[in-house]
Amino acid sequence: MNVTNDVTFTLLIVAGITVNLLEGLRLNLIVVIKKLCSMMDTCQLKQKLDELEVSSDAYSLDGTLSPDRMILFYDFKEWIVLYVDQEGERNNVKTFSSESEACAYLYNYYKLR
Q1: Domain definitions of the chain by residue range
Q2: pLDDT tens-place string over residues 60-89
Q3: Residue 105 pLDDT more than 60?
């Protein structure tokens, strides 16, 4: 191999590494975008529960503590999902650091039923 071929070969290797790095960054960016797009707020949750044909009597998204329903509300530092039974007792209390996580939990709760 002469010097020109060595330089060309080296440039091809560097170009290949650059392409691989960029491809990796592109894939990571796609994962981040998918996560952002999958984030849900209570308005979107309401639409998704309607699509699942979940009765609006089965849940509360505004924090109203009514019996025999799942409740989702924000308590100053965390999102809470719980079930209030017929006697008004709180059951199955789950806490979340984000609205999106709480909404996803409640959505999956009804989706899997």
Answers
A1: 1-38, 40-111
A2: 999 899 999 999 999 999 999 999 999 999
A3: yes
